[in-house]
Amino acid sequence: MVLSEQLATTGQRQAARKHSQSGLSSRAWIYMVLLSFQYGAQPLLSKRFSGNSVIVSSAVITCEWAKVGFALIFMAWDGTLWSLGKEWTLSGALIASGLPAAMYALQNSLLQLGYRHLDSLTFSMLNQSKLLFTALFMFLILRIKQSSHQVGALAILLGASLLLCIGESSSSSKSNNAHREAILSGVLPTLIASILSGLASTLCQWAAQVKRRSSYLMTIEMSAIGTLCLFVSMLWSPDGQTIRRHGFFYGWTLYTFIPIFTNAIGGILVGLVTTAAGGVRKGFVIVMALLVTALLQLIFEGKSPSTYTWSAMPLVVSSVILYQRYPYREKSKTQ
């Protein structure tokens, strides 16, 4: 989730240390359960209610507006909204949020394609490859090291991603054209989105730690800048031509707003889970979400996971648990 990654950056390490040895409150459990259902249901909701007739750019822009609305509500709730005018500057916003915002705008559009051309469970597991790219960019840019267990977990996750790609390219139930469409319009956009997610998330963490930017404020800045980038791109893009011909909400129904708002609410929940339960336990939410996706896909689509998906699931689950359970620790120096 785009907003999820933005809200999870500030204080994640501190929250993880704070909660690593303490029990969870009932409120934390509620947040975790709600986030698991949101993560698990999001691919299904987007695929069902954002049909192929809905213009990708209009869905992304509306989602960005929803994020701004929720961020403003929560800033008013915690009292930080009223001091915004004294602290905010345009130059600071461009330095901290400009480049990540452009990346997130493109990533959001690519994820919409992935939602539409992959089954929900395959998309959810393939989307976890962002963990691999985040770790890579964290090391290259912020020099954040990984433990040997985490390196092994990332290798397992890479193997699971490759297995899912092979499954999409060799499914016997698809024609050659369907194979090509699944790879080019489903797998490839999702993997590129994961790369962008890793890089943008790293830049967000840099802004949060070095520039001390509020996660809610960064959400508003990146949504505003990302929306501006999309509007500029629509001057020549096919989406822009379609909007000028048929209108911004072409192909929309009232149900289309459901995945838009659940995506935005999910971002708020990530921030709450990180604060209430810590970053380590947030990894288990991802695992629970994969099971939710599999169950919902079976109930509402009558589609059981493929052999490749069943094979990849334990790899994804074990890699996430392993990565979150064994973080890198500096070796104590002996005198």
Automatic annotation (TrEMBL):
Gene Ontology, cellular component aspect: Golgi membrane
UniProt-listed Pfam families: Nuc_sug_transp (PF04142)
UniProt keyword annotations, A-Z: Membrane, Transmembrane, Transmembrane helix
Transmembrane domains' residue ranges: 24-41, 53-76, 88-106, 126-144, 151-170, 182-204, 216-236, 248-272, 284-300, 306-323
Topological category with respect to the lipid bilayer: Multi-pass membrane protein
Tagged with keyword Ubl conjugation: no
Protein's cellular compartments: Membrane
GO MF annotation: an example: pyrimidine nucleotide-sugar transmembrane transporter activity
InterPro entries reported in the protein's UniProt record: Nuc_sug_transpt
NCBIfam families referenced in this protein's UniProt entry, alphabetically: nst
Protein name, entry field: Nucleotide-sugar transporter
